[in-house]
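Reposting from the mailing list since nobody answered there.

I have sequence plus structure tokens for a pair of proteins and want to know whether others read the tokens the same way I do. The first protein:
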Amino acid sequence: MSPSETQAVLTRIEEQLATEAMSPVVQQALQELLNLVEHLVADNQAALAEVERLRHQLEDKKKPKTTTSQAGGQSHTNHSSEQPRRNRQPPPARRAEDRRTFKELTVHEEIECPVDPQQLPPDAQRCDDERVIIQNIRIEPRNICFRRHVYYSAAEQKYYRGPLPAGFGPGDFGPELQALILALKYCGNMSEPKIREFLENFEVQISSGSLSNILTDTADAFEGEVQDLVLAGLGSTCYQQTDDTAARVAGQFWHTHILCNPFYTAYFTRPHKDRLTVLAVLQNQTSLRFRFNAWTRELLERWQTPQKWRDRVAALGDDVELDAVALRALLDSWFGEGAGGASRDDLEQAAAIAYYRQQTAVPVVHTLVCDDAAQFKWLTEYLALCWIHEGRHYARLTPVVPRHAALLKEFAEHFWDYYAALHRYRQNPTAEQAVRLREQFDELFSRRTGYEALDERIAKTAAKKDELLTVLSHPSVPLHNNASELGARVSARRRDVSLHSKSVRGAHAMDIFTTMVQTCKKLGVSAYAYLRDRLSQRWVMSSLADLIRVASRSPPGLSPAATARV
């Protein structure tokens, strides 16, 4: 039976039932039958989807490898909540500045446009000139020949050469060209062959190896700046947002972690995405330190780690700090080399969390905005889950029974109405409104509709009450995790163009420049100008770390980009 025929039968049944009164027993039996229909249809759809996935997988084996084929040929259903959310929020006020850039354009040249006197009548008088600003750009090669003075000392058997100006050398390419190459890669998302083709059109002679070296080796000069940027970003707000996306490094599957807030976005490509990796990202480190103390023991108790190992930890005493090598040796002596399973993981993770919570080298994140993945839990004092992620679970429900579809539609309306109420609370938080919203949450997510899949989903949302309502005690925390998802999308689009990084060093360079470019974008700074300023060693522009600190102290309502321009 086709889906349309199934739908027609269910509609007729609904119409017949609407004309007759039924006893509670019959109603209960009918509801169970309708839920059974939903389960059977869902199982059938899952089976069809699996068949389709396998079919695409077989077809993909006959095609060249691309990022699309890696996805297994799965079709992506649109579960966006953009329209229901936008309908409940007032439109943003239009700006009065220039509609293209919102900035005053710099005039580099003025050219007079006179009127031919032969066209003017005898009584014509000159008025104020009309200014018409046309944006233009000029790209042309500018090769510089430096005549270095050379002296030779016979006594010392040594040559003395005049130094090149700051920013030039070693290498055959100046800072403006290097900055352009980096901007084409990380602002324009161009592949290396296309960058080379673009430069050849302007008579720049550069090999593929030289181009690759510029994109990789120049990252070393920005290592310290990115370290300062991340530290400033971690200290700029009481919360951080995080997400991750797939990456390929030297043919292996890795993960790119995104850490951000309104003032910066940082990227960290690592082999794993477990809890220890997330802790390393929060500390901007590649290696971890561990501490056994009261907090470690408390975590082990909450996780219900076997008492035997909790006693071992207690016997160590308070405030025992170890590095990764020392911890591995200790755990090997307890469990055996590489053994221990879940209990060993608990000890390692609890000690790493205890160290992070009490260290002072980097600002400790108090609230983490993320999805419901297990690796994000227990790391910070508070966890704020994304309402948009939660809403997608409801959008994925596809009821075939008309009354179930009506129940889902009605509940979705209430869901997004409540989301809009939380948005209004953030703009003007009060204790009374917080209490009222908590009560409304309990009322909304304690409903039972009779549509089994919807009721299960409502119960799962209710279980996340504390994480979803973090905003009521911390109104500055956003209700969604769109910022980090947009950051992940940058990496995904680059993966579409370049597929993968050939080396770990190349992946690290990509993290550095993507972090700088995306942070420049949030602060309203030209990434090309910033890269050129640093590569030429002029140091005229303020560091991104300083701009983050200034922007984070700006009055509420003023965007980071506007603060940076001021």
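The second protein, same order (residues first, tokens after):
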Amino acid sequence: MRPPLTLLAAAFLAVFPEPAAAHAPNPLDPASAVERAIGPGEVYEASLRLRRGESADIVALQQGIDLVVDLFAPDGALLQSVDSPNGRNGDEPVAILAAADGDYRLLIRPIAANEPRGRFTLRVAELRDRAATERLAAERRRARAEASDWLRPRSAPLPVTGILPDDLPLAPFDALAGEALVVGLGEATHGSRELNDLRLSLVRRLVERHGFRLIALEDSASRWRDLAAYVAGEAAAPPAGAELEWGWIGRRARHSLLLWARRWNLAHPGDRIAIVGVDPQDSGPARERFASFLERAYGAEVAASWAPAAAELAAADEQTWVFGNSDVSAPVRRLVLEAYARVQGDSPLLAQRFGEAATSDAVATARELLQFADFNGGVVAPARSRDWYMAVNLLAATGSSASPPKAIYWAHNAHVSTAATGWGPTGAVLRQALGCGYRAVASTFGEGAFVAQRAGDAENRLLVAALPAGEEETIESVVAGTGPGARLAAWPCEAAAGPAPWLREPRPLRWIGGLYAPDTPPAGSYRPYRLTEAFDAIAYLPAVAAEDVPPDRPAVPARPRPQPPSGE
């Protein structure tokens, strides 16, 4: 399945359910299952009556359609929005612990308007009275304690600030780094200060102690290519038009990383670090250069035929700033593919006419535009996802030598994860390519604040939101149980069969995307992960603070989706 604009954009759909239908919900029968067809714009409502202290496990089996299951309390409050990372096929499990007597309502809906029509089966997997629920709670406490016990000898303390002293012992992480070719460093939010400081510290440790020399960011490939000579210390200033700060996601940390890498390169001219963006979005400056190159290489007629496609790409790419509609039409996707093939195929001759640097830049830009058009161009075989292309670009940046540089992949937890889905993620693609040469490190927190874009806001404003401490049945609570304060735990690659059973089942892990609604219930800030399957390490900070809100957030008008001709 092709994901929306980014994995993070799915968060908007997860916390903004469709309006409830006017009819009464269908009561669930614990003895029988419901089998239904469902398609875009449709919802199915069901309810289960429970008394306080009772509990139930409900499963919606997806068949050919990606669904979200919203759970509402008897008073109408949204308790959960469940969307497991399993694409269009598989279970969406919903656990209900009744805090009050009444009807608990479930609303089943497609995750997006472009989902195909499919089916689902809804059933009550287990229904427990109060005594059975109490026994289950005791069993879960024992299971969580067993999981903490397994992680404890594999963990080490961290400073609660996330800033690591140079002499800090961190044996679990150092062992992982010593075995890896690529290390993914994740984050639970895009806008929490301590998570960014921890990642900056881990990057420094990987460079200084373990010889990593390539830093690949979930960020604009074009912008970082423009800054390559400046970061390397080969240029005294960035090129005209290039920026050192842009966007809001990770701005402070990204700028700190850039300046630190430049200082390193000036001090170590024979042992440089490279920073590359691997995301083929936000390519405005390079797109303009590509149009100019086409006119120089092929003439005004070709440039004129390219202009409408360039305009559509620009309109789509602008939406990446605000998680908007970045759809690319099939004709433009085909034209971009032809342009890339032409420039790539002609590159030996073009290099003689315009030089290696200009030709290489044109080929790289055409490749980024093709990638962008491909993953935004709908389900057209053999289209690839954004995560697939980030993996491709990272591996391309390591080069083809027998001894490629060891690399760091800096992205959201959702992207660094090795848990395979229909669209990736990047970490799963890298695990398939590199085996245990790729290691994924998640980072998360107990309570605190973050910056995000206000979901559904026409002015694209940013907000600072805060979350209370999580519930007991979360990955955060188990990692916190390994010791006081902040902790980092790591385990052997492909250890999924060895850990405590609790760690091998889907458990809630903090997951806050770039879009966030202020009225999101606390349960909406989680996604289920099998910890030891999806990651090779996890860093936990008890509390985090929000990054500063940049003052220059652009207000990008919404881009409507094209309407099909009448009769279709």
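Reply #1 (J.P.):
I read it the same way you do. The CA atoms of residues 75 and 454 lie 26 Å apart.
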